[in-house]
């Protein structure tokens, strides 16, 4: 398990990223959380994680649109903790629009945050992992790294890019005790998803259960949401010695979505 290791988790002030950060702290890792939000709320999250798990937790507000800030975050973590042993590339955004109406700035932002930020963080973290002869890189992909949906061209393109990057990077470091994997969740029950439900109920004249089952979970055979804690548990496993021979893998956690 990742006890006495240091993990950097991008996009970890809420949702999946926060669940992963908490799970890694619970497993004994020092953690650097990252993301936007209310400063007081972030400090409460940081301090409560420290108090609950007896590890050191730092916050870094690096903007995932800015490569230099990403590199500086990795360097600062190495200076503070002595190493970055685990990198979880989780930050992501979404925008829904037909291709011919897709705003240029939204395309650029989604590619930058969902794909390019993973490259920049990985590039910064790998030299230290190589020197120490151990590392775990876990990329939060999506079922959309494996299949497509309409009106999500930038997101699907970025997540397919994560699949290719994960595999290529894994091959490069396969003999250096560094693993690189991607988790591909289906729809995860997060505040972002929850906030979509009232508007969809109103727009479609549906009940909450109907929206969940027939709209959001239409592609998920189990008709159940993935939970952030389930994704986090898989991330922690991938950081363990038991997962040493899992690398370059796209691990589906989607209620059977991509089995069809």
Helix and strand layout, with pairings?
Blueprint: E1 6-9, H1 15-26, E2 30-34, H2 39-53, E3 57-60, H3 67-81, E4 86-89, H4 104-132, E5 135-140, H5 153-172, E6 178-185, H6 191-194, H7 197-204, H8 208-216, H9 228-238, E7 250-253
Parallel strand pairs: 1-2, 1-4, 2-3, 4-5, 5-6, 6-7
Write up this protein.
- The protein is built from nine helices and seven strands.
- By secondary structure, the chain is an alpha/beta fold.
- It has two domains: 6-188 and 227-259, NAD(P)-binding Rossmann-like Domain (Rossmann fold, 3-Layer(aba) Sandwich); 189-225, no CATH class.
- It is globular.
Short description:
The protein has 260 residues and is of the alpha/beta class.
């Amino acid at each position: 398990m990742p006890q006495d290791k240091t993990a950097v988790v991008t996009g970890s002030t809420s949702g999946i990223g926060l669940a992963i950060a908490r799970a890694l702290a619970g497993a004994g890792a020092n953690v650097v959380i990252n993301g936007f939000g209310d400063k007081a709320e972030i400090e409460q999250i940081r301090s409560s994680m420290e108090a609950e798990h007896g590890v050191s937790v730092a916050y870094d507000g690096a903007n995932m649109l800015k490569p230099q800030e990403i590199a500086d975050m990795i360097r600062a973590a190495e200076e503070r903790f002595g190493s970055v042993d685990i990198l979880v590339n989780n930050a992501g955004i979404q925008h829904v629009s037909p291709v011919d109406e897709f705003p240029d700035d939204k395309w650029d932002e989604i590619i930058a945050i969902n794909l390019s930020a993973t490259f920049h963080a990985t590039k910064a973290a790998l030299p230290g992992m190589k020197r120490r002869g151990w590392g775990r890189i876990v990329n939060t992909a999506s079922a959309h790294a494996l299949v497509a949906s309409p009106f999500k061209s930038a997101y699907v393109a970025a997540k397919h890019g994560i699949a290719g990057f994960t595999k290529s990077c894994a091959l490069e470091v396969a003999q250096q005790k560094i693993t690189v994997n991607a988790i591909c969740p289906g729809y995860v029950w997060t505040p972002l998803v929850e906030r979509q439900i009232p508007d969809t109920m109103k727009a479609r004249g549906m009940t909450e259960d109907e929206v969940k089952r027939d709209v959001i979970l239409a592609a998920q055979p189990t008709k159940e949401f993935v939970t952030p804690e389930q994704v986090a548990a898989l991330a922690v496993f991938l950081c363990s010695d038991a997962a040493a021979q899992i690398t370059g893998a796209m691990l589906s956690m989607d209620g059977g979505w991509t089995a069809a």
